[in-house]
């Protein structure tokens, strides 16, 4: 039986159960959850970077977005508050849409 030892979406046990396969799960502690959420976010980011098509990239971005929703709750906030912080940073420093690539800045 393959061992996965990773955070999965909430309905994955039901999906596996429908295949009549044996499996085991456990509920993570708060600290374990934070660690595994960060690992999963890293994993999904790598999958996004390695995506070979726009469709695949959007799928991975959807996974990242779902993880961001969970992470923001873990840190005692809301997605609306996260969006507000994003807007404030964008107003102050801009976004990334102009594709500006900084090469160097003179040292004082």
Structural overview:
With 108 residues, this protein is an all-alpha fold. It is 57% helix and 0% strand. The protein is built from four helices and no strands. Helix 2 runs antiparallel to helix 3.
Q: Please, how many helices?
A: 4
Q: What is the strand content?
A: under 5%
Q: How far apart lie the N and C ends?
A: 60 Å
Query: Into which percent range does the helicity of residues fall?
Result: 55-70%
Name the overall outline: elongated
Work out the radius of gyration.
19 Å
* Structural class by secondary-structure content: mainly alpha
The ordered string of helix (H) and strand (E) elements is HHHH
- Note the main sheet: none
Essential attributes:
108 residues, mainly alpha, 4 helices, elongated
Structural topology:
Blueprint: H1 12-17, H2 30-49, H3 54-74, H4 79-93
Brief summary:
By secondary structure, this protein is mainly α. It is built from 4 helices and no strands.
């Amino acid at each position: 039986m393959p061992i996965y030892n990773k955070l999965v979406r909430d309905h994955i046990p039901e999906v596996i159960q429908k295949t009549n396969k044996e499996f085991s799960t456990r509920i993570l502690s708060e600290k374990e959850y934070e660690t595994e959420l960060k690992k999963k976010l890293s994993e999904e980011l790598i999958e996004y970077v390695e995506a070979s098509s726009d469709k695949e990239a959007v799928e991975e971005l959807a996974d990242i977005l779902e993880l961001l929703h969970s992470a923001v709750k873990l840190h005692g906030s809301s997605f609306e508050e996260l969006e507000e912080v994003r807007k404030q940073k964008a107003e102050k420093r801009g976004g990334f849409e102009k594709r500006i690539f900084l090469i160097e800045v003179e040292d004082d």
